[in-house]
Amino acid sequence: ANIYLCLFLFCLFYLSCDNINNQLYLYEESFPRSYNKLNEMEALSLFMSISRVGDEARFCLLWIFLPFSVLLLTATLVYKLKQPRNNVDESLRTHVYEVHQIAGEVAASMESVKQCILLLNQFPSLVNHPMPPYCFTPFLRACWSGNTPLVRYMLKNGADVHSCTVSRESPILLAAYRVIKSKVWDPSVLNLLYEAGCDLSEPNKRGSTALHLAAREGHISLTYWLLVRGAHLTLRLSSKS
């Protein structure tokens, strides 16, 4: 990028000097015919001295531009050489989509779960790696998909129980959503999150909690599970909807 910038500036300076020369030449051609008070030799001498401005400007800009370019490229090269080579980051970029995909699969196969765990063993920081634009992490995706083995493994290996998406959906809220959509009552992920210290009443951006969601959907088992464990009854939605 710095090389392209230097080339662009050089071309810009060079074309500017050529434009100065062209304008002076055209003005030189028209000047002797417009002003009769100066004889031809005086006018020619005057404009020859003026036309040298373009050449001198090009020469000066060239000598200013070259040291600046060399200094810029040298500084960039030194900066790049001083940066440590992080092969882990390259590997993360290679495997990050695979981990996110497996963690977000509903009813993922055991082979996929084992593959995801192997990758997380190799790259532990992927557990809390957010994926734009909604900032889902593999841990949040596993909560949303109801993947009990992955959630259990991630909680034992540094999963952030206070993480949330851009809309502030917490792990409990995502797990509650999956429980409601599931045909079978299975609170195993909810139990793991509760034991890990997740806030049962953490609201999203609209002020909706897991209890709001369970009550709105008429899910009696989930509502009872939340109330028994101390979910707040007095929280209100921040939106009229």
Tell me the Rg in angstroms. 34 Å
How many helices does DSSP assign? 10
**Shape label:** elongated
- Secondary-structure content class: mainly alpha
Strand content: under 5%
- Helix-strand pattern, N to C? HHHHHHHHHH
Oligomer: single chain
Give helix % range. 55-70%
Major sheet characteristics: none
Stretches where pLDDT is under 50 for at least 5 consecutive residues are 31-38, 84-88
Topology of helices and strands:
Layout: H1 2-34, H2 40-82, H3 87-103, H4 110-122, H5 138-145, H6 148-156, H7 171-181, H8 188-195, H9 210-217, H10 220-228
Walkthrough of the structure:
The chain is mainly α. Among the domains are: 77 residues; 65 residues, Alpha Horseshoe (Serine Threonine Protein Phosphatase 5, Tetratricopeptide repeat), CATH 1.25.40.20. 66% of the residues lie in helices and 0% in strands. The chain is built from 10 helices and no strands. Helix 7 runs antiparallel to helix 8 and helix 7 runs parallel beside helix 9. It is elongated and about 95 Å long. The two termini are 49 Å apart.
Task: Please describe the structure with a list of short key phrases separated by commas or semicolons.
241 residues; mainly alpha; Serine Threonine Protein Phosphatase 5, Tetratricopeptide repeat
What is shown here, in short?
With 241 residues, the chain is mostly helical.
